[in-house]
């Protein structure tokens, strides 16, 4: 029997949803939606990037935007920031970030909070006037496509831009493909860094080469079935298929159609492609793809470049770029790009407007967004590079941050997410400041990947961190408090690995002390040049557990007992115990 959401989508989904959003907006917004139909419409709204915020925030929405592979054309960031400034304001200020800001996402895009439904038509009109859309940004559809953030600016082994554009326009733009069994993530990279994280996607295209009829052909190998969440992560596995660039679109579309037609529509906790691939197996999928979905002959996989992957690969700095932060040469004589650090991915609208100004003044106006919630200013000539680096905004979002700021990521958390168990953004910002002040690392350790997810859906990618934090609940001194599970040793790269959980349900005020203790053990016991991931793998579980000892410190951990932060007007409808019982509600639809 199909899940109830399938009936809702069958009645109305895809592009058709937009007209209903506009109708509700015109007739009073949130109040115009019949109360007994709201859950159904909120499911449908997600296709157009609109997510109703959690209990106690009735009538407010989050809007997620799309832009394939992280490219923001000149003028787009400015317009998004103006929308954030004018519309994304809540009833009270966040004590850490104020009001009117935007969030950079791990899929190289942007989301806005505190929007009212009656304002959505004008927001859409404003964004779409500069080519920004929220279509297919949420729900059971193909999400924002991730790709090489610096494509066209740095050398790629095989061009990825044309394929990304075709996926965006023809595949994601096809309303006939809007209704998938669950969300579906695509990645394309033509570089040898692995920055699109193909291992974490439902289908990923990675650069490869293969000798065919005596000719060395550049193209892509295909990987399928990757994803995180629910403590059941799976690295995408090889489909054993090599495609020429001109055939990659057909093969990608074929796999999307195959999953649409045969994916599980009954059990939403078991219907991502990672479960589909495990059920069918790569061989059956490859055979069905060839027989029923593609006309080109599928060649066996070619030689990949995975051994050269450096992006979040746990390799030493001299192996290559581990992210896009810093000042680096780009194609074109005397040209550079400058990657900034936004430690938890949140930027006030005024800062985003200033960033757009700097991109115009010192570059081409174009910006790139990375999978680590950071922006990159591109096309900066060496003659103005020093002046750009001297701008005040770059002292806030530094191209040379601390190792903790450089490696930090955080999901939305209880601030807006209905299934999160802990607050994330503000707590991570406090944690980073505390670690900067209290932990000394060896000089050659340029980054510690510290990822924070508010629950096991793992939208913050804690499973792929040096140190991963997942929100939990625990009892302390007779009270239920916010807590963490702590894992170590994750990362992607050539051989993706997921964290090993070495501490469970550590109260939020004791977790920074545990992180400090394990980092000090790393600094004391590592061999020369050893990265944290390498050290964790070599150290062994028993020693890691002993090193990661929870400890009360002077770290201030507000909101430990709220479950719903005191600065926002949440409804008093759910106890901490009830929230704890819901911790199995994974993975999320986000």
From TrEMBL:
- Protein origin, superkingdom: Archaea
Q: Which UniProt keywords apply?
A: 4Fe-4S, Heme, Iron, Iron-sulfur, Metal-binding, Oxidoreductase
Q: Where does the Nitrite/Sulfite reductase ferredoxin-like domain lie?
A: 57-129, 329-389
* Nitrite/sulphite reductase 4Fe-4S domain location: 139-294, 406-550
Write down the SUPFAM superfamilies for this protein, in alphabetical order. Answer: Nitrite and sulphite reductase 4Fe-4S domain-like, Nitrite/Sulfite reductase N-terminal domain-like
* Gene Ontology molecular function, alphabetical: 4 iron, 4 sulfur cluster binding; heme binding; metal ion binding; oxidoreductase activity
- Its family? Belongs to the nitrite and sulfite reductase 4Fe-4S domain family.
**What is this protein identified as?**
Ferredoxin--nitrite reductase
Q: Which organism is it from?
A: Natronococcus jeotgali DSM 18795
